[in-house]
Design a protein that fits this description.
Layout (H helix, E strand, L loop, with lengths): L3 H29 L4 H27 L6 H19 L4 H29 L3 H38 L7
Helix pairs in contact: 1-2, 1-3, 1-4, 2-5, 4-5
The protein binds magnesium ion and fe (iii) ion.
Fe (iii) ion binds next to α2, α4 and α5.
Length: 169
């Protein structure tokens, strides 16, 4: 039998590693974007939110008397870097990056919905409140991407059709 609290602690560590991956991925994207100022600014805003999310998760774990695993975070960073490196060789990296971000935000949304339910079940109202709050930020980012992906896609296609292959990102 696994205690509910142990499972919740494990899921909080998973979320922390996920945020580590998010930060690396968004950071790699923001640094490479040159011609999409609105997208770059929204990604930069979400990088700040992501760093704060990590700190809020750490505070929850500290309060619960558990710690996060550095190894898991390192693995997450590595996979994010590989993912970003893969995108760099694609001419349409700004479109592929938006696709990856939109997908990743939904992974985050469902992860926090699960955490809210688990924290409520374990009677940890503070962790439930924090995860709810983080979930709202992920939903806002997903909905911004949803609203802007058509514009990014069309701007990209225009650049591709007019620029001779240069500076599409
Ligand atoms: Mg996040
Ligand atoms: Fe996010």
């Amino acid at each position: 039998m696994t205690d509910m609290n142990d499972r919740l602690n494990q899921w909080l560590r998973d979320a922390h590693a996920m945020e580590e991956q998010a930060e690396q991925m968004l950071d790699a994207q923001a640094r490479r974007i040159e011609n999409y100022p609105e997208l770059k600014a929204r990604i930069e805003q979400h990088i700040s939110e992501t760093r704060s999310q990590k700190q809020r998760l750490e505070a929850c774990m500290e309060k619960r008397g558990t710690s996060w695993s550095g190894m898991k975070d390192l693995a997450a960073q590595f996979s994010a870097l590989m993912q970003a490196a893969g995108g760099m060789f694609a001419g349409d990296e700004v479109v592929k990056g938006s696709m990856a971000s939109y997908t990743f935000e939904h992974l985050e949304i469902v992860s926090y919905r699960i955490l809210v339910a688990a924290a409520e079940a374990a009677g940890d109202a503070e962790t439930a409140r924090v995860c709810e709050e983080i979930c709202r930020e992920e939903e806002a980012m997903a909905s911004w991407l949803q609203d802007h992906i058509p514009q990014v896609t069309q701007a990209y296609l225009m650049r591709e059709a007019t620029d001779s292959g240069a500076a599409k990102r």
